[in-house]
Each structure stands twice: as structure tokens, then as C-alpha cells.
Amino acid sequence: MNEFWGPFWIVLAGALAGASCGLLGAYLVLRKMSLLGDALSHAVLPGIVIAFLLSGSRDVIPMFIGAAICGVIATVLIETFHRRWRVQEDSSIGIAFTALFALGVVLITAFAGQVDLDQECVLYGEIAYTPWDRLFWEEWDLGPRPVWILGTVFALNLAFVLVFYKELLIASFDAEMALSVGVSAALVHYMLMGAVSVTTVAAFESVGAILVVAMLIVPGASAYLWSDRLKVILILSALMGVISAIAGYFLAGVWNSSIAGAMVVVMGVLFALSLIFAPHYGLLGRFVRQVRLSLRVARDHVLLKLLRDRESQRVSALSWGDLVDTAARWVSGIAIRSLMWQGLITRANGHFSLGEQGVIHATRLLRNHRLWESYLNQIGLPPDHVHDPADALEHFTDDRLREEIRAALPDIATDPQGKRIPDG
Amino acid sequence: MPIISGVYEVIWDATFQLVLLGSLLIGATSGTLGAFAVLRRRSLLGDALAHAALPGVALAFLWTQSKALPILLLGATVSGVVGVLIIEAIVNYTRIKADAALGIVLSVFFGGGIVLLTHIQQSEVGNQSGLDKFLFGQAASIVRTDLYVMCIVSALVMIAVFLFFKEFKGLIFDAEFLSALGFSQRVVDLLLMGLIVLTVMVGLQAVGVILIAAMLITPAAAARFWTDRLHVMVLVSGILGALCGALGVGLSALAPRIPTGPVMVLVATAAFLISVLIAPRRGVLARWVRLRANALRENGQHFLRAYLALQTQDKEEVVLADLASELQLPLYRVRRLAKRLGRDGWVNTHNGACSLTELGHKEANFVVKSHQLWEYYLVYRSILEEDHVDRPADEVEHILTPEIIEQLELILAQEDIDVSGDIHKMGSGYRRTGKDE
After folding, report:
1. pLDDT beyond 50 at B362
2. Which 115-154 residues of chain A touch chain B by CB within 8 A?
3. ipTM entry
4. Global pTM value
């Protein structure tokens, strides 16, 4: 095998496996069926082994049949344990898949030597042998067999997702709606499970029974953090599968380790990156939004404090210590500095006062606050209970909402505490 | 018999006794704790924890170059706990649901473990590190010092279960009550998780990271069939676990090539299936017997009611074929029914016809009366209209007791309701019940 084609076939097989799993995995994550994928990939093992034992070869057809039978048995067992024998659902899954997997391992080790299959293959597959596992038709060499198998499965999965896009979408998000427009959620469920089983078996030789779970769930979950749109999730998920395959191959060379394992590690890294950097659902985005929100609230409170002070004594004489919110000193400090920097407030002799723009801002906020107090009082809240809710609402009230509240109130000049509602 | 003498030799082997004792301890510990883990719905978390332990084992070895069990288990514990913490963080801080979070941590940590293991294997040729016994488990690798570690951990777990039994019970069945008693639910939950961590770690060597979860789940689920009482369940689960451990090791001693973990799991699964089958009350057989007895009684009572419906003034006999068409049952089943009722002394059968004995008449009258009284009662209480009462009465007639009938009669008599005759004037139907053969 020459230096280009060897790695090429391995990476291609990995990429096809990653993309096939990624496409279906997105649905598994969306439909909260990740554990079923996990269970299924463990449970098909005895079927594969028995097919090997009976056929004496690595032919695809007996393998698929054996795995399919085992997949159905696992599903039936889980259902029987749970529904008929009333075992808890998680325990049912746990019992069924560990039992079948144990059976598979015992069969492999008991008949070791008779089957061209070992514990390593179960654990992390034999993707490294891809270039040497050739497919022949008569005497023509058609290329590596795993690439053909995985390519066919990828094409099938792609066709499945494209043809049944709408059905899968509706059944995944709203089973009742699906029923009302004539889509059988149960049929979609079984078709999806069938596709997952076929993909699991096809990927088994390359990446092993356990790591295929990672390929199914991890890219789907990562993509789910980036977008709310199913199309984007599907494309991203498949893409991450492909990227992991390429990067994993080269990392395995560097680490001198299993290729499939390295692919999964790359998937884990991609997931961690998504977890942190995904714009809306990522941890960083969440943190930034929270900081900005608390900063905004802190700024508003500083402005209001200064305006209230001015209202009562005509001369502003608040020092840094008066202005800082002791409960959130850090955010409050940043808020004061940013207000000074923008010129909304000024400092002279250690005392703060509102700038020209600051007065406009602050007056608008105070008007929000007192209008809300009046409104809440009008809808039945006692006057001594209106301050706190108004305090929370004042920050998020824009011009339109403010005038709507004004219009909903009788013509009053003061709030329930008798303080003047400023004009905005 | 070579195999018998082989077994005999194995049993008296000191190493084997050590291994047997070790797996007995592992089974007992995981069985005992599994009962709580399963009821608290933490069983699959144990699975994630075990898979996540693999990179820890490999890293501990890479770092210390030592294969001593305590060091490897320490590494396993650290990475297992990190894995569980990551699951919690993902669930708490992102939109990803618990099942996916579990799957992600489980598979990515396992993938990392595989990378490290293959790296160790391929870079240190000649020094087969033997870490791969942690994948599927190899009880034969238990040595005396390992056994001490197991004893200490098992003892700790057992003592904790004994001391905090009430708290765990509260956590499982009524967490709010537990808080009301002044215990922090979170602390008790953490304690349980900590014990699950210990249990999983101590079982890793013999059962392996992939299947150790089964030793938590399967004996406990089996024990659940035998009892409704927690302390009994914990006891049964512990004993079952110990038996599975010992039996698993014994069986795999006959075929040393096979790893012990899968064998133990298969033994546990067999124990589960047997429990499901033969457990009293909740078991499948017991339930089948109960259902069959009900079906027998119901069909017998239908037979009697149909007899009275078909009986005419002048003839003390009803043809079985007529009964079959009245009951809408095949003739062979009616014949069998008649035979069985004959054994109870209710029916005499002769030449394709039957007649009721005195006892049979009494029972038949009682059933018809139950049916009719219940119909009248439903109408009297305005629960249903006359033409809708037949079906519910058909279902209830089999379970009404003479005391209830007396009460019904009394109530209806006080209201001066005439309860003679068919309320809907169209005869009564017979509900199809389960098979009685």
C-alpha cells in the first residue's frame, strides 16, 4: 500500500462512519434516545459473533441479519422487562444490554481462533486494516471493503434523512401534531432505530461496538449547541464526524495509539469547544450575557441613586462609597467607571453628579419605575409591595411600553408613595 | 469423571479460594448498594462512572509506572468522579439532556482510555502491562493485598449502609420527608453517590469497566421481585450478588480464557430471569396462576349463568351445544368447562347435556342475583342508563361477596325497588376472558 492511498482509505472509512453516525445521532439527541443508541450498539454484539461463527466469514449479509435479530431481541427484552414485568426503565435497559454484550464477549473468547474476531475488534475496531481488506468482483479489485460498506450506509442514511426530512422533523418535535397530519410517529421511530442498527453494524468493524456510541451521540450533541435549526444541526453534526475522522487519524499517528479512540477524543474536544464557545447555548456566551445584564442593572441603579439624591437635596454629594452597591462591589465599580467614561456622570472633589445626558437617562428610568409602581398599585398590589417588582421591571421597559402603561393609568402626577412621576 | 476431579482440585487451590472470596465480596457489596442505586434511579450513572474510570487507570499507570491496585483504583476514582461532575455540569448549565450527557461522558472518556491503553501497549513492547484486565475483568489477577483493599472497602460500604439505612430509605421513597427531618437531601444523595463510586471501583478488577454496572443493576432488579420491603430487598440483593460473584468465578475457572466479568454478568442475568419467573406474587408464574384462577372462576360463573338463562320449566337439562352458542365459545371448551364444574360438584354431564346439582343451582342463583342487583343499583344511583348496565355488571358479578349482596339488597329494598326480572329485558352478555386452558 503506498504512502498516499493507505491513509486515504483509512480516513475515508472513518469520515464515512463519522458522517453516517452524525446524521442519525442528531436525531437521537433531539429525541432523547441517546441511551437507546448506547444499548443497541452493545446489544448487537452476540448477533455479529454468531453470524461470524455460522458463516465462517466476514460477509456483510449474515452479519447484518445476525445484528438485526439481536437488535430486535434487545428492543423486545427492554419493552418486556419494562412494560410487562414492571422493571424500571433505566434498569431494563441496563440489564438487557449488559447481558447481551456479556454473551457476545463470552462467545468471542470461547471460540477465539475459530472466528477472525477478537476483543480488540469489539473495543476499538480495526480501521487500521481498512486498506488491506479488499473487495473483489470476479477477479477485479474494487477497493477496500469497509469503504464500500460504509459508503453504501452513508448513502442510505443520507437518502433516508432527505426523503423523510419532514416526517422526521415533525415526529421528533411534536408527536401529536405528527399524528394529526398523518405521520405515524411509531413508524418513524422504528425506521430510525432500523437505520441506527444498520449504521452501528457497518461501523462495528471499523470503530468497535463501544466507540460507535461516541460517534452517534457526541457530534449530534455538539451540533445541537450551535443551532436551533434542524438542517444546520444535521450538516454540522455530519461535518464534525468527518473532521474528527481526519484529525483523529493524524493524532493516532502522533500518540502511537488506536485510531478509533483518537477520533473519539477529537469528538470530545469538539464537544468541549462547542460547550464553551457556541454563541447562544455555550458557557462563554451565557456568561457574557449574564455579566452584561448585571452591568446594565448596576448602571441603572447608579443613575437612579444620583437622580433620587438630587431630587431630595438639590445638591449632589454622593461619594464613591455611597454609590457602590456593597452586595456586588465588583460589577458596581465597573458600572460607575463605564458611566464616567461615557460622560453620563461626573466626579468633582470626590462627589458624583449626573451629566446632561445622565439626567435624561436617569429621568427616563425613574419615570419607568414610578409608572410601574402606579400601575401595579392599580391592578391590586398594596403600595408597600410595589417597589421591588418595579425595581426589576424598570430596566426592561422601552419607550413604547412606557407610554402604554401611561395610557392605561388615570391622569395622575404622583406614584402611590406620593412622589412625582417625572416627564420623559 | 475428569471434570469433577478437576473442580475438586480447583476448589482446594489456595489461589482459587482467594479469588472466590474476592468475587464473593464484590458481589455482596455491589448487590447491597445496587438496591439503593436502582431504586434511586442512579443505575446508569454507575455505568457512566465505570466507563469514565478507564483513562484514570491508564494515567495512574503512566504516571507511577506501578501496577499496584490501590494506585490504579485511585486514578480510576478520580477520573470516574470527574466524569460524573462533568455530567452534572452539562445537565445544569446547557440545553443538553441527562441521557445525552451520560452518553457523551461515557463514550468520550472510554475513547480516551482506549487511546491511552493502546499507547501503553504499543510503546512498551515486552512489558504487557496487563491493564486490559480492567476492560472485561479478570478475577484470577486478584492477589492477597488486593483482597485486603476489597475487604476494607466492602466493610466501609456495609457499615455506611447499616448506619444510614433510614436516610437512604427516606431519600428513595420520600425526599421531602427527609428534608423535613432535617437532613439535607443533597448530602445524603452525595453520600450514596460516593458509596456507588467505591463499589464500582472495588469491582473493576474482577468485572471490568464495561460490565460492572450490571452487578449493580441486575441483582437488585432481581431482588425487587421477591419483596416489597426495602431491608429485605437489600439483603436478598446482597446475597444474590455474592452468589453470582462466586458462581461466576467458579464457572470461569473451568475456562480460564474467558474473562470473568461477562460470566458473572450472565450468571446474574440468569438469576434475574429465574426471579422473574418464580418469585411469589410479583413473578410471572405467580401472576399467570392468579390470572388463570380468575379466568377459571369467571368462565365457570358464566357457564352457570348461561345455564339458568337457557333452562326451561319442563326440562331439568340443557344441551351443551346450546350453552356453547349462548356463551359464544367453541363446544370443546364448554365441554371441558362442564367437566371441571362436575369435579367441583356443581354440574352433572350426560350425553352432551348437563344439569345443575343443588350446589350448582345455589351458586348460579347467587351469580345471577349479583348481576341483577348490581344493574339495579347502578340505575338507582343514576350512574348509568338501563341499556348500559349489562357490561359493568358482568365484570363486577365475579367479585361481589355475599355481604355486599346483602347490603345491596337492603339498600334497594328500603327504596321499594322491585329487583325481580331483567332490567333491560334483553338478556345478559358474557365478557370474553383470558384463556382457561
Report:
1. yes
2. 119, 123-124
3. 0.84
4. 0.82
